[in-house]
Amino acid sequence: MRYLLFGASSTFGETDFENGGWAGHLRKHLDTKEKHCYFHNLAISGNTSRDILKRIESETRARLRNKSKEEWTIFISIGTNDSRLENKQPNVPEDEYQNNVKKILRIAKELAGTVIVISGHPVIETTCNPWKNRDCYFLNERIKTFGRIMKDCADKENILYLDIFSKLESRNNLNKLYSDGLHPNKEGHLVIFNEIKNFLEQELN
Questions:
Q1: Apex CA 186: angle with CA 43 and CA 125, to 5°?
Q2: In Å, how far are 6, 125, 135, 196 from 103, measured between CA atoms?
Q3: Cβ count near 70 (within 10 Å)
Q4: pLDDT tens digits, residue range 150-200?
Q5: Which one, of 64, 12, 72, lies nearest residue 42 by Cα?
Q6: Spans of the chain below 70 pLDDT
Q7: 3-state secondary structure of 72
Q8: Under 8 Å between Cβ of 19 and 25
């Protein structure tokens, strides 16, 4: 199989530079399971649905290499950067986010046989409000709201959706899974990877 990942800093592996974050663990797992896989992590720090909508088609087509769409799986994890507040205003309004996600998922379905959407994860609000002394705020209720919008879009397109937010929110040691309040640390990325691995084993096998 061949895999493409679209997302932002947590998908890129921010703060877990030793392993490449949950995506790095996923690549190693799939390589071992399949003996070798084509795995492209196309996440870019700071990306929102606006950014991914602009680039998902061109960056996917550049890597299809005349293979059938059934050989490709696209992972999409967006919403946290969309949900943030800057200067007391939404970075991306909810209605725009919904429209962006609808278009992104339809493009992904056209190009790949399997599309999997992964929600944003919780943040440690005491560290993220404000974020790095800027007029920038990440709120868990807003991340949840954007996750619900994404789930609704995924359900309507019959696309697999993994709610990572609720998986992490219920853990007692949440503070220990973050390096800076916004990005998972090495242990946090491993927890996310294991949730994704279990989800794939349940849904795709």
A1: 80
A2: 14, 31, 30, 24
A3: 10
A4: 999 999 999 999 999 999 998 888 999 998 999 999 999 999 999 999 999
A5: 12
A6: none
A7: strand
A8: yes
Query: Alpha-carbon distance 105 to 132, whole Å?
Result: 32
Q: Omega into 130 within 30° of 0, i.e. cis?
A: yes
CATH fold of 2-204, please? Rossmann fold (3.40.50)
Please report how many Cα atoms fall inside a 13 Å half-sphere around the Cα of residue 158, on the Cβ side.
Answer: 4
Site of tokens 């490709």:
72
Measured in residues, the chain has a length of 205
Model confidence pTM above 0.85? yes
Phi/psi at 135 (5° precision): -80, 65
User: What is the structure's pLDDT at 172?
Assistant: 86
Residue type present at position 34: E
| Euclidean distance between CA atoms 117 and 5, whole angstroms | 10
Residue ranges per domain, the chain? 2-204
Cβ atoms 105, 117 nearer than 8 A:
yes
- Please report the sign of the dihedral spanned by the C-alpha atoms of residue 185, residue 46, residue 133, residue 147: negative
| Model pLDDT, residue 33 | 85
